[in-house]
Fold this sequence. Notes:
Blueprint: H1 8-19, H2 26-45, H3 52-59, H4 61-66, H5 68-84
Helix pairs in contact: 1-2, 3-5
Amino acid sequence: MAQLVYDLSALKRDLTNLFRLPIGDRLALNQFYLEAQTVVRRARDANLALPPVVTDWLAQADARAKDPLLATTQNAALVAWLQAQPG
């Protein structure tokens, strides 16, 4: 059975998919965090280092849901990081 490779392209895809998830209520936040844990686990297993901008964004969805300014700031930082990555 072929092993799937988790690389920067896969990380970017997963973060983009997470970016599209709603976080406005508890159920949506729980789903976001479940997906975020999967991304962190995949990155760790592939020895992909996640920069603070990504780990903060993954860990603070509940704060973004309550604070529009934080949401705007963190989302913009994540998008800038994603766009700066090759591929």
